[in-house]
Amino acid sequence: MKKLLIWLPLALFLGFFGLFASGLLRPGDRIISSKLVGKPLPAFVLPAAASDRPPLQSGEFATGKPRLLNIFASWCVPCAAEAPQLLALKRAGVEIDAIAIRDARPDVDAFLNRYGNPYSRIGLDARSEVQIAMGSSGVPESFIIDGKGRIAYQHVGDIREDDVPMILDRLRNAQ
Amino acid sequence: MIAEAGLAALWLAASLALLQLALAAIGLAGGKSDLLGAVRPVAVAQGVLTALAFALLITLFLRSDMSVLLVASNSHSMKPWLYKFAGTWGNHEGSMLLWVTVMGVAGSAVALFERALRRDTHMATLGGQAAISLGFYAFLLFASNPFARIDPPAPDGQGLNPLLQDPGLAFHPPTLYLGYVGLSVAFSFAVGALLTRQVDAAFARAMRPWVLGAWILLTLGITAGSYWAYYELGWGGWWFWDPVENASLMPWLAATALLHSVTVLATRDALRAWTVMLAVIAFSMSMVGTFLVRSGILTSVHAFAVDPERGTFILALLGIYIGGALALFGWRVGAVREGAPFELVSRETMLVVNNLLLSVILGLVLVGTLYPLLTEAFGHKVSVGAPYFDRIAGPVALVLMIAMVLGPLTRWRRDRMREVTRRITVPMVAAGLVFLALAVFAWGRIGILPFLGLVIALAVAVGSVAPLWKRNLWRTPLFTWGMVIAHLGCAVSLAGMACDSAFTVEKLVAARPGDRVETAGWTLRFRQILPIAGDNWTALQADMEASRGGGKPVLIHPQSRFFASPPTTTTEAALLTRWDGQLYVVLGQEADEGRWQLRVWWKPFVTLIWFGGFLIALGGALALVGRERRGWLLKWRARKAAENAA
């Protein structure tokens, strides 16, 4: 027993060493996708994040029509860069809702004034609780919610111009 | 010329390290005393040369020598001199040079000042220190040469990350490194003692001041880093559980455990193998931390030097040194006899509990930090954030704090449960009163952890001064004062953390000049926004008057700063410190129609967090001075007695 204990630290270290080596060998990308893709949206009720848009709750999604749920924040620079693409999606007839993360209403209002407002409803997630429940780790992220209220697709990072056709495609398929 | 001289000094130091290792190894193996006699001077010369190389690199930065690649890519001629100076270690190569400098200088200090250790163990220790240094010299010279030239020289430098352009950079990394790398001495002591099979009380007494010294500096470094992040990053938080922060916390946890177990070994000759293990683990954690940060296998806000090739190099060093030390441990520690036994109710038991809990926290932080890596190896991706660490490590830390009340009030070797219970009555009553007060006034409004944190903080505060009860304070040994103050510091810090998370008031507004903002008893009058210019930045600065309870208004100036090289914006929060907390104001972006985003926090007693950290380090310093003075006095008395007898 004592013999085993004496060699245990070395064994543990060798385990860590192997782990580190494997981590070095596969640098790979660091995108962490949500476990909830394919599952129903977690339940939430959020207060309104903007003065002229209604609040958001999870029950409002299962309407038979797929919607885009954008997670953003007024303090997030890539979110501003993403704004034109969201406006383009809106013009293409996509219904977009949003959750503003760690934000405040005056800031959100100012952001929407400056970059345009493609959103139908905006919920305020002041402590990132809903964001974490959805398996999202940063802003911006966009989720396609299908007509039955399930998460069909998660887009990590800002939606670029070349992503727009792909998003439209996925929305059509999520009927 | 300066760069070439620096590189030459570095090569020379590396060869001296090799010589030092060879002298110690051959001398010890063959019992050649004359060879061993040369080890100490070589160690001193090696330390001097690394310090010289480092001083030369600083000179290059101060002179903005743009023909040196490192200066050109990390400095700028228009920078204030303080940031040219501190910018020396604000990059990968420079900070690695600081690393080997600390290692070399610590090695010379061991060569010069260590008198208590048996000679063969002393020499084995110096050999061990040289062996570790060699790996890091190789890393610097072959993979991260700080003195590389570029031809033609750059017209000017690319600048230093503006987040680092703060006086904190001059203080935090060097202190942290002195502690972090200073732990290499404990590692070498352990290796030396295993080689010569001298793991006993005398060994522990010799090692203790070195552990204490490194631990004090590490404590100061972490405290300073936390405060720096708090005011510079403008998020109002003081600890983010970022991998790099964890990388500094893990050696601290191991060193804190070591500090307590080395005392058991020095006082009671118990916990021999365990103490040696901890000494190995403490510096191993420093090396693992460095690897995690610099290899880029974990993403971190601090990752300024991500390079997989360097990662491979450091991983090889980890394998050699940690693997080697642990193999030596397995091979030799069986020969270390069991130390002295002790009863279940005794201070030894309390310190074992302390060690176990610290190790559990260390394990939890390590697992949390590495978990993303582990799951990725199996194809899943997760990230571990503050909620995990708060919820998992927090409760264990609180249990540890309870042990902190009991430990100092329990006698060495054997005690009676009834006596211990009697001694902790007062702390328990104090904690009970806080519990009642909080239950009446704040029930349901503050979280369970801050709630318990406040209760336990008071118990620890009262319990930590209890050892002074009924003692003649003048005759109380300095190291007892050290323990009292360090433990009190833990209570103070815990109280600050609990108050911050329980009572902080946050307000976000968009205001225009002329507006008034009210929050948590404070009134802020937003007077105007003015552009101002600094040495290498311009800023928009808000003039505000802050007042409370009709008191005299104080001017505060939160800024939004723009740096041209590299182009970045930073927020400079305005902090107003009062005895009962801090007002923290951040100026955000301009919203519409001339309104500005303001983020205002009132953080009651938040400063206690860092004041406590400072007290902990102060306690360590008192213990160090007290122990050294006592050793010196004992020797002096012995000499007097010998003279009198003669």
Distinctive features:
heterodimer, A: 175 residues, alpha/beta, five-stranded mixed β-sheet, two-stranded antiparallel sheet, 7 strands, 37% helix, B: 646 residues, alpha+beta, 19 helices
> What is the arithmetic mean of pLDDT of chain B?
89
Spatial shape of chain A: elongated
- Give the proportion of residues in helices of chain A: 25-40%
Taking pLDDT < 50 over at least 5 consecutive residues as the criterion, the unreliable ranges of chain A are none
Pattern of helices and strands of chain B: HHHHHHHHHHHHHHHHHHEEEEEEEEEEH
CATH architectural type of chain A:
3-Layer(aba) Sandwich
- As a percent range, the share of helical residues of chain B equals 55-70%
| Interface with most residues | A-B, 34 and 43 residues
Number of strands of chain B: 10
Mass-distribution shape of chain B: globular
How is this structure best described in words?
The complex is a heterodimer of chains A (175) and B (646). Chain A has 175 residues and is of the alpha/beta class. Chain A has one domain (45-173): Glutaredoxin, CATH 3.40.30. Chain A has helices at 2-25, 77-91, 105-115, 129-133, 164-173; strands at 45-46, 56-57, 67-72, 96-101, 122-125, 141-145, 151-156. In chain A, the strands form two sheets. In chain A, strands 5-4-3-6-7 form a five-stranded mixed sheet. In chain A, helix 2 links the parallel strand 3 (67-72) and strand 4. With 646 residues, chain B is α+β, with helices and mostly antiparallel strands. Among the domains of chain B are: 1-165, no CATH class; 424-503 and 614-645, no CATH class; 505-604. In chain B, a hairpin with a 4-residue loop joins strand 6 (559-563) and strand 7. At the A-B interface, helix 1 and helix 3 of A face helix 11, helix 12, helix 13 and strand 1 of B.
Walk me through the topology.
The complex is a heterodimer of chains A (175) and B (646).
Chain A: H1 2-25, E1 45-46, E2 56-57, E3 67-72, H2 77-91, E4 96-101, H3 105-115, E5 122-125, H4 129-133, E6 141-145, E7 151-156, H5 164-173
Chain B: H1 2-30, H2 33-37, H3 39-62, H4 69-74, H5 81-86, H6 92-113, H7 119-143, H8 168-196, H9 201-232, H10 243-268, H11 272-295, H12 308-332, H13 347-377, H14 386-406, H15 417-423, H16 425-442, H17 448-465, H18 478-503, E1 505-511, E2 516-519, E3 522-533, E4 537-548, E5 554-556, E6 559-563, E7 568-572, E8 574-578, E9 581-590, E10 596-604, H19 608-645
Helix pairs in contact in B: 1-3, 1-7, 3-6, 6-7, 6-8, 7-8, 7-12, 8-9, 8-11, 9-10, 9-19, 10-11, 10-13, 11-12, 13-14, 14-17, 16-17, 17-18, 18-19
